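Same chain as my last thread, 203 residues:
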Amino acid sequence: MMVLVRHGQSEWNLKNLFTGWRDVGLTEVGIAEAREAGRRIRAKGLRFGIGFTSALSRAQRTLDLILEETGETALPVVRDQALNERDYGDLSGLNKDDARKKWGEEQVHIWRRSYAVAPPGGESLRDTGARVWPYYIHRIQPHVMRGEGVLIAAHGNSLRALIMALDGLSADEVVRLELATGLPILYRLNADTSVAEKVELAG
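reply #2:
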């Protein structure tokens, strides 16, 4: 069993800024979203053996808040930049509307939504997957296959890349995938590591 959660709303989500690897905190809304995720997980009676998160504090804080709600604050947690958000390079810290004025609506849309085109100095979604997929296979999946509950708190694009592999999505399908902040997604795997069940733990 494995649960994926995109971090709660961050300060830069609220300000409509490209965040990427910049380390920004959660808003009050984001804190509430993380706590609600924990309550939904607890309501399902799910228990974990290990947690994974990125090197960025908004994901780490989300994981901590979830574990407070589930009563598992002593859970061993692994933090690794392999699960970091996509690096937006030269766009990082810019307001999305300002970026559109500078480079044009079409170009910014391509950088944000194409699978293989990276913004200047940054990563494409394919590049993000190139670090997420091996990390999942070598570090995370073995825990799941041993029957340990695994909780992953990460980012929109690192989780999008992971879900692409889990769900067998095409490049066109994955760029249309939207992940809500603070929404836990439960996966159960078959013995051959394919997905047996996927459930969004909505309200």
